[in-house]
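Predict structure. Chain length: 273.
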Amino acid sequence: METLLLENEYLRLTVAPQGAAIHSLDSKKHQQPILHAGEKALFPMLPLANRVAGNAFMLHGENIELPDSEADAQFFLHGDGWLKSWQEETHDASQITLSLESRHSCGFDYQARLTYRLKGPHFMAELELTHLANKPMVYGLGFHPFFHLTPATHVQFSATGFWPEGENHLPKEWHGELTAQTNFIKPKIPDNQWLNVGYSGWSGSALIERDDMRIQLTCPTPYLMVFRVPDEPFICLEPQSHPVNAHNMAGQPGLVLLERQQSTVMKMEIAIV
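Prediction complete.
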């Protein structure tokens, strides 16, 4: 698979046009990985994040049936941006911009532009989606990074509550009281247990600390998905513009209805601090 290199004094990153996926992000100073290396160490989620119950939702009285996915038998999982091949627009030593156009009969018809950039010890991602069709459609965005995890890694972030995981990985009713496993308000080593929950009221900042390296994730959204698999050397902290299954929640929180040529943007930063 083709990969492209971004590098500066502090960071080294490899990215593939397939899925606009980052394969690796390493700290050169610490000689350690920031992201868990693989074919998808980080990928974008568009035109929605995660799953929608029944793979369908109502919009202005119309039942919208989402497309099938090659990655999941039940859901249009994480949308289609992470499965498609993107076009390289620009690329230099510290920045790359990729673009994608996608259209589905359900109403998704969009152009996306994704820029990855290195600036000092900061990695920045900016995802912009523009709706192309005459009929308006609702959209959501997200990023899915796999942070490298060691037995000594501590994670910290704040949240007002969470949605426990239910059947088919869909959320149950929101809980305003965090459990011992789901509470990261104070830094802690994540439990070596399955965890796949969405958080509300996220401050937009999270810290991942191990050995002498301190990593800060920032993204201006109140929704964060956390995914942990027992005995695996990664933890996913996934900023999303909307909670899982927002399409079927009252008010469709975090989703945006775009008319032709209107756009929505998500920005995320991962930095050594």
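Summary: The two ends are 32 Å apart (CA to CA).
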